[in-house]
Amino acid sequence: xxxxxxxxxxxxxxxxxxxxxxxxxxxxxSLGKTDAPYGFYIYIPAxxxxxxxxxxxxxxxxxxxxxxxxxxxxxxxxxxLIHGPPFLIDNGRWGPNYPMIVVSPQCHNEYWQPKKVDxxxxxxxxxxxxxxxxxxxxxxxxxxxxxxxxxxxxxxxxLVAAAVVICGEGTAVEARKARVPIWIFHGAFDDxxxxxxxxxxxxxxxxxxxxxxxxxxxIGHGGWHNTYDLTGMGTESEEYDPYDVSIYxxxxxxxxxxx
Length: 259
Hints:
eight-stranded mixed sheet; Rossmann fold; 8 helices; alpha/beta; single chain
């Protein structure tokens, strides 16, 4: 498999040429209905069917509380709609500056497994018109843990150009293996994953193009709603990195380039 380098690119001309997303389709595929290793929701932006362009892909990994086996009960897949981008989509509040495909898999095992996450991303990029230089990961709580494991295991072979993690727990060993720009969000009063963990993770990400840590001063184990809907901008602690740009624009400012 070829290795990739990550480049910073604030020229969004290729994204501006995509049809404007005026509201697309949010489709559910329970586990076993496709060849994907997870059941999932997928958001297809408006204009996708009429265009021939390739779209950025955002993969959202939910927290531990939203796990379920939709092959046994299709309705349990709706748990992934509780938080994050799928929540915003399902409630008509999704509106990043540029259109993107959003996939929200549902973990039916105890933890997110890097090899399965990798297989899932490959399934989506094979079956949908994805701009493979613009694949992004985001997740909260246990989903953040899964992102750290995925980035550590894939290293330079990661399919992802950038990631946003909210209240995730990782290790310094994982951070040192990662090669992907990452923006960490955390609550100052998190009693599940202490803030010190996030601080140590930021310090350990020594091989990535950019790492940021934004802290909400009055929040515990949470902060994902105001991060994903952007209302957290301006409410962050001044002691850490500011939340001064849309996380979606920040993600899109990075892309993969094959070496």
